[in-house]
Amino acid sequence: MSARTRSLTHTHPTEVSLQDALDAVGDPVRRAILRELAGSADWTRACGTFDLPVTKATRSHHFAVLRSTGLIEQRDEGSRRLNRLRRPEFDRRFPGLLDLVLAEPATDLCLGDPTP
Amino acid sequence: MSARTRSLTHTHPTEVSLQDALDAVGDPVRRAILRELAGSADWTRACGTFDLPVTKATRSHHFAVLRSTGLIEQRDEGSRRLNRLRRPEFDRRFPGLLDLVLAEPATDLCLGDPTP
DNA sequence: TACAGTGTTCGATGAGCATCGACCATAGCA
DNA sequence: TGCTATGGTCGATGCTCATCGAACACTGTA
């Protein structure tokens, strides 16, 4: 049975440790996903519509981490997988953390270390 | 010249990126230091007085990270190095982040993965 | 049925970092 | 002048995780 036929495994933020939350939010690619998701309405963005400098394998990995940490919710719609930011739930569990992430200016993920 | 004779290099929280802040706070040993420090008055705790399951080399490394991230301030007093949590400064730069760390229940750092 | 689009899974790889032991430097005291 | 306590530095090591290509699964459509 594939992940598409069975219902997706979600984790509620209340079950998430601070360690896992910080790990999830500690990756710049995942923060970019969260910011882009916060700028769109719920269930309007599929995984492939995000502007990320990684392959789809890595992308899929990051979305799985965000889901297992209670940061996003996912739902299948045809061949696409739509996303929603679980902002109120996560805010209740970790007040202020998501605000810091969303307030961060969009960094250019391609330029790792601009040493000339 | 040793680090004890010259004045210590400090970083103000305003110069710290969110990435560096999350990295600093992402380590459980460093969070334990921050919690223990928050429970003591300023300039009353030397580096060696913390209950940590690591050698002094690792300990020294963690304190250096906390100092370079603007989370603590250090001052030499005789042969000991006293510490102070830069709570108001850090709170202004990253509101809520330190609160989450200090609210975290003290975890047993020795038991990494209690799989029997 | 064949094909294109979307997303997952698997195994391998590489980089970063926490950790350690050994050694060195300084301060304070007998 | 030794001796001890505190703490930093250095090089090596090991583990975790982000990343990738390749293969696979499902959906929708021609």
Q: What order do the helices and strands come in, and which of them pair?
A:
The structure is a homodimer of 116-residue chains.
Chain A (H helix, E strand, L loop, with lengths): L17 H8 L2 H11 L6 E2 L9 H13 L3 E6 L2 E6 L1 H7 L3 H7 L13
Antiparallel strand pairs in A: 1-3, 2-3
Chain A binds a DNA duplex (30 and 30 nucleotides) through α3.
Write a structural description.
- The structure is a homodimer of 116-residue chains.
- By secondary structure, chain A is α+β, with helices and mostly antiparallel strands.
- Chain A is 40% helix and 12% strand.
- A three-stranded antiparallel sheet of chain A has the order 1-3-2.
- In chain A, a hairpin with a 2-residue loop joins strand 2 (72-77) and strand 3.
- The longest helix of chain A has 13 residues, at 56-68.
- In chain A, 22% of the residues are buried.
- The interface between A and B is medium-sized, with 16 and 16 residues.
- The structure holds a DNA duplex (30 and 30 nucleotides).
- What proportion of the residues of chain A is helical, as a percent range? 25-40%
Number of β-strand runs of chain A: 3
Instruction: Spell out the helices and strands of chain A N to C.
Output: HHEHEEHH
Structural class of chain A: alpha+beta
Strand order of the largest sheet of chain A: 1-3-2
Number of helices of chain A: 5
Described by the principal axes of the CA atoms, the overall outline of chain A is globular
Overall pLDDT of chain A: 91
Indicate the radius of gyration of chain A in whole angstroms. Answer: 14 Å
